[in-house]
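User: Can you predict the 3D structure for this chain?
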Amino acid sequence: MKSSERSVSVWEATREQREFPPLQGEVRAEVCVVGAGIAGMTTAYLLAKAGRRVVVLDDNAVGGGETGQTTAHLTSAMDDYYHVLEKVHGKDGARLTRDSHQGAIDAIERIVTEEGIDCDFARVDGYWFCGPEHGRDFLEKERDAAHRAGATDAEVVERVPGMPFDTGPALRFPRQGQFHVLKYLEGLVRCIERDGGAIHTGNHVDGVEGGSPAKASGKGFTVTADAVVVATNSPISDFVAVHTKQAPYRTFVVAGRVPAGSVPRVLLWDSLDPYHYVRTQPAEGDPAREWLIVGGEDHKTGHHDDADERFARLEAWTRARFPVQDFELRWSGQVLEPVDFLGYLGRDPAGHENVYIATGDSGQGMTHGTIAGLLISDLVLGRANPWETLYDPKRKTLSVDSVKMFLEENLDVALQYKDLLPTGGEVKDAGEIAPGTGAILQKGLTKVAAYRDQGGTLHQRVANCTHLGCIVQWNSEEKSWDCPCHGSRFSAEGDQVLNGPALGPLKPYGEEG
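Assistant: Here is the predicted structure, written as structure tokens:
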């Protein structure tokens, strides 16, 4: 999708994304990595450094998917809390969770240092502070669970120091991190090419086959490899196995510039649900000011089309607490929430031989993606990794919390199929669709996703998602068609897949058979 057709993140606004010539024909490699975000690029970097012949494929620029839409918090303070993870995964699971996320931050710092990557990496403290429904006892409960998980330096403080509003008590996690993610990926590009790896963009992979060898292919190209790593945010290598165990959510971000030093350099989160998350970032070419980046207001993908209201609430929340007047940037991204709160990283759960997946970032994509690189590279190289069982995509977690979330999310998916009934569209006639907007039409028994471009041309596609057939919904902010079941997203014209698990575009209306 052209950048002019959607919102643009701080990273995209301050850095040009790298593109490479697309692959044509057939290539043999030892490892093919599908996806050039942080999970794929970290995996490719580690395997290329270990001497493997690596090919990276992406239909977008490097970092042009969800990695470029992040707020780039690097943290081992878990979104879903250690006291919850301990209930779901046990004390050993909570400890391994902390070890892996802290290990991911350490790995990024090590790579930055060893490879000389200039990406604004900094160690910062992270702080949870309470929303109205929680008090100090909540923080102390989480502190005690964090201590049992190995974060023995976590401590409750009376307020976040230097913050321009009174946060009240907060739980401090020392030695977290932040960086400029596109600069970091630029550094990984340099290293992968140095070590003999090849990167190709403009290649939409629509087929992954397991076997010896495995294959990744698309229109006009095929890569045959000893291993294929699918790092596409939502995996495109299996149809159902993982997708019933995680749910897609849109999350919203605003950014404005504040006087340098007016907000302390920390990571900050409150305990609301959905929660707010805050950090600063140096503003290149403007040393007197820095970016204040604030996210939150999540909703399940395809369930609402009210981005303007969500951005307005974020801006109001931020203005009430921070010295920011103008918000220059706003954007949204997609996160995948696993039913048991941890990513699915490892061997393909559908049993495809020599295929590996990385998905389920749960809002902590930078560390989950780095863990994916560390873990999957070990599996490909035949090395033991202590995190393998914890993140195994085939795992079944039978805690009350995870079973409840599994049932709730899959009931929600089932309810979406009611939209298949011929109960009418959002508008009665295509003439009601203004330029630059889309709506669902009912034509006989068929739901049609109709978009009128700025030139007045009407584009019509069958509104059934090409993954499992749910009716897509119009996203006014991103100018896309979003599936409310498993999060597939399509361009406004319906002729491109923006996010899996769908492999192909929406079918042209009139060719649905």
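The chain has a mean pLDDT of 92. The two ends are 27 Å apart (CA to CA).
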